[in-house]
Amino acid sequence: MLPDLENLAAKAQSKKRDFKALAQRMKKLKPQKADEVFRQLHKEAFEHIDCLACANCCKGLGPRLTEADIARLASALKMKTAVFMDTYLRIDEDGDNVFQSMPCPFLPEDNYCVVYASRPRACRAYPHTDQKNIKSILSLCVRNTETCPAVYRIFENLPSQLP
Ligand code: SF4
Ligand code: SF4
Predict the structure, then answer these.
(1) Would the pTM of this model clear 0.90, i.e. be above it?
(2) Residue of the CA atom closest to atom 6 of ligand 1
């Protein structure tokens, strides 16, 4: 399914208050139950949303790269680590390594990440909605409704899963 990306941020912002209230209700669940609810909704969302038709995270967010990410990517591209860093990375305001510009330099027109097998850990984990201890990142999840249509769908469907 092709998500309505053009209007996603505006739609998510208009629902922010509702989504924050849902996050508060989530906090009342036991950790294991909260993880179960999100894992189920995550699975459902990605049965309907195709990342290759979206790539919104690769266009706008960009990952923080760890040392291991940098070493793996430099090796995959057959570049010296220092050259890879000079070519693609900058240090952001938090002191983290991030791509110099977005959309990601490894995102082609067809959205098939050209370094997929070696992509950063953060790219693999995004949008984090199937991770353990989901209650610890609910604020981040609410923010991600503005970027990721799957997270938006999860919050839209969340009321039916809450007591
Ligand atoms: S993870 Fe979310 S934002 Fe990223 S490509 Fe998939 S649906 Fe789009
Ligand atoms: S490395 Fe690949 S998955 Fe990560 S932001 Fe770039 S294109 Fe997307």
Answers:
(1) yes
(2) 51
